[in-house]
């Protein structure tokens, strides 16, 4: 489980094929302080398991299913990624509950600067948009964000300067693809309501 509060920006330092997927080496600093083999870590919102590490980098293996559901297949050496270690029992929950299970990939449709803030429009498929409400939570590339507004095609998130500095979101361009995880609670509520309505 994660919070969607990014701890640092890491960098892909090497990519290797293995039987069943891709192996990524990721340079990092802060998260290395207590990272161990078999620990879970969110990389752009997708939960992965650390299989190797040294003082400056760690390694994860992404299977084919992960590559198909996320933006990982587009990673190159030098790609910047959002990193967050798993939530501890004694940690504060400052964002929202993020499982690290990416629900799909969506495209950046609009970027508008409004003073120091930036409004980003994300084009969501209908199967994900149905879980979104105004002022609800969503994780975009692992970042816990609040939906500022939405229409029939996209959701809009307002990005403050701190988030632009602390994550990769300021680097997004039009048509870039991002990992999406909708709010876990929204999925449960939707399923409950659908089941209740079908029984009436």
Q: Helix share of residues?
A: 10-25%
Radius of gyration: 17 Å
Distance between the ends: 35 Å
Strand order of the largest sheet: 1-2-5-4-3-6
Sketch the topology as an H/E string, one letter per element.
EEEEEHEEEHEEEHEH
Low-confidence segments, ≥5 residues, pLDDT <50? none
Note the topology.
Layout lengths: L7 E11 L2 E7 L12 E4 L2 E8 L3 E7 H6 L10 E6 L18 E11 L2 E7 L2 H4 L7 E4 L2 E8 L3 E6 L1 H6 L10 E6 L1 H16 L1
Antiparallel strand pairs: 1-2, 1-6, 2-5, 3-4, 3-6, 4-5, 7-8, 7-12, 8-11, 9-10, 9-12, 10-11
Task: Provide a descriptive summary of the structure in words.
The model has no long low-confidence stretch (mean pLDDT 94). This protein has helices at 64-69, 126-129, 161-166, 184-199; strands spanning 8-18, 21-27, 40-43, 46-53, 57-63, 80-85, 104-114, 117-123, 137-140, 143-150, 154-159, 177-182. The protein is of the alpha+beta class. A hairpin with a 2-residue loop joins strand 3 (40-43) and strand 4.
Jot down its keywords.
single chain, 200 residues, alpha+beta, 6-stranded antiparallel β-barrel, 12 strands, 16% helix
């Amino acid at each position: 489980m994660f919070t969607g509060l990014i701890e640092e920006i890491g960098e892909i330092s090497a990519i290797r094929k293995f039987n069943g997927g891709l192996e990524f080496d990721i340079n990092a600093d802060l998260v290395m302080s207590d990272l161990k083999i078999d620990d879970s870590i969110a990389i752009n919102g997708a939960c992965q398991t650390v299989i190797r590490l040294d003082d400056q980098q760690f390694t994860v293996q992404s299977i084919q299913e992960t590559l198909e559901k996320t933006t990982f297949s587009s990673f190159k050496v030098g790609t910047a990624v959002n990193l967050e270690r798993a939530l501890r029992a004694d940690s504060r929950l400052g964002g929202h509950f993020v499982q690290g299970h990416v629900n799909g990939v969506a495209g950046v449709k609009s970027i508008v600067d409004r003073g120091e803030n930036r409004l980003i429009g994300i084009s969501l498929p209908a199967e994900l948009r149905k879980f979104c409400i105004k002022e609800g939570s969503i994780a975009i590339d692992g970042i816990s964000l609040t939906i500022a507004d939405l229409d029939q095609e996209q959701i809009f998130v307002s990005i403050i300067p701190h988030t632009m500095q602390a994550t990769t979101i300021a680097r997004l361009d039009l048509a870039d693809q991002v990992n999406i995880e909708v709010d876990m609670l929204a999925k449960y509520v939707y399923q409950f309501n659908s089941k209740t309505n079908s029984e009436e």
